[in-house]
Amino acid sequence: MQIGIVGLPNVGKSTLFNALTDAGAQVASYPFTTIEPNVGMVQVPDERLERIAALVNPEKVTPTTIQFLDVAGLVKGASHGEGLGNQFLGHIRAVDAIAMVVRCFRAPDIPHVTEELDPRSDIEIIDLELALADLGTVEKRLDKVSRASKAEPKEYEVELRLLQRLHQTLARGDRAEGVAQDAEEETVLAGFGLLTVKPQLYVANVDEKALQDGDGLVKPVREAAERAGVEMVKMCAQLDADLADWPQAEAEAYRAELQVSESGLQQLISAGYRALNLVTFFTATGRREVRAWTLTTGTPAVEAAGKIHTDMQKGFIRAEVIPYDELMTAGSFATAREKGWIRLEGRDYAIQEGDVVHFRFNV
Q1: Beta carbons of 64 and 293 less than 8 angstroms apart
Q2: 52, exposed or middle or buried, with CB in 10 Å at 0-12, 13-18, 19+?
């Protein structure tokens, strides 16, 4: 999956990106340091993968990955071309989810785009610009479809009705999420590439001393997240960037002193998985490879097989499945098989979080 890191200038987006990817993106205290988007591929940490590998002792262990995009800071008026305007908005149309970084730290040496540091106002600016950008997209399409529907009313009936509702919603400054009401409208909506239908989460970027208790700047972000029905992650991007260079044991010990159980990367990935409704399953191919895979919740086994190789999907016979916890209890695949804990599932079985799967197929 791909997550776009967005926010106003100087809120810590590139610092967060560096912390997540260790990619060395340029960081500076002036707007538009990031002109072209920085792209980083990150391996998803998962202790379960390592424990499965310990049972098999494979030649290769392959985690699943997530891609982060750090795009230029959005400013008020971006939907009308201010700042990097359409260039910024174009970059985030391709992402699967949006992580909105909100500045919740005070630093006199790092200027903010407004006179007062107000996280609530910052969120409102970004949300409004995304809605206005979508409104422009809908207005252009609505004009075209309205004219075309006069000649072929039945052909454009569903799309025209949907566009009219979208226009009303976006004109109020509200998100387009939830406007589509049935499967046909959902299919039409997907073709518009709207920003406000993408899953979203908030990242409250605090300073180190605010990690344990937070401060008044985090509260409005949490309240906004609750109103929007999205998740909020509180983290210190600068701390995570610093600890990225530390030995793992020392970094974990320091986080323990701060009473922080997970790194910012782990928190953000977990929130992203929940926002996108994803699950992880595992495969163990003999002694060759143990690997983690990511799927949308509810994906049938035959499609999961196709994610590994198209031949597996074409020649699918069955899936041999054992939940991760049961495999750990058994201690080996041989013992699990003796106990009858490895189930045989058909092509329509929905892969579950933590399933360890071996696909049988014939080409």
Answers
A1: yes
A2: buried
Question: What is residue 282's three-state secondary structure?
Answer: strand
Interior CA angle at 348 toward 346 and 321, to 5°? 50
CB 287 within 8 A of CB 313: no
Cα separation of 301 and 349, whole Å? 5
In terms of C-beta density within 10 A (0-12 exposed, 13-18 middle, 19 or more buried), how is residue 245 classed? exposed
* Pairing mode of beta strands 231-235, 60-62: unpaired
Contact present, 313 and 133 (Cβ < 8 Å): no
What are all long-range contacts of 175-182, with beta carbons under 8 Å and residues at least 24 apart? 175/127, 175/130, 175/131, 175/228, 176/131, 176/134, 176/138
- Please report which helix (H) or strand (E) contains residue 142, including its range: helix 119-151
Beta-sheet pairing, 2-6 with 65-70: parallel
Alpha-carbon span 268 to 203, nearest angstrom: 8
Query: In terms of residues, how long is the chain?
Result: 363
Over its length of 363 residues, how does the chain's per-residue pLDDT go in tens digits?
788 888 888 888 888 888 877 644 344 333 444 445 677 788 888 999 999 999 999 999 999 988 888 876 665 544 444 443 445 566 778 888 999 999 998 887 776 777 788 999 999 988 888 888 899 889 999 999 999 999 898 999 999 999 999 999 999 888 898 887 888 989 999 888 898 999 999 999 998 888 876 667 899 999 999 998 999 999 998 898 888 888 888 988 998 888 888 888 888 888 989 989 999 999 997 789 999 999 999 999 999 999 999 999 999 999 999 999 999 999 999 999 999 999 999 999 999 999 999 999 998
DSSP 314: H
CA distance 351 to 349: 6
| Cα–Cα distance measured from residue 291 to residue 46, given in angstroms and rounded to the nearest whole number | 11
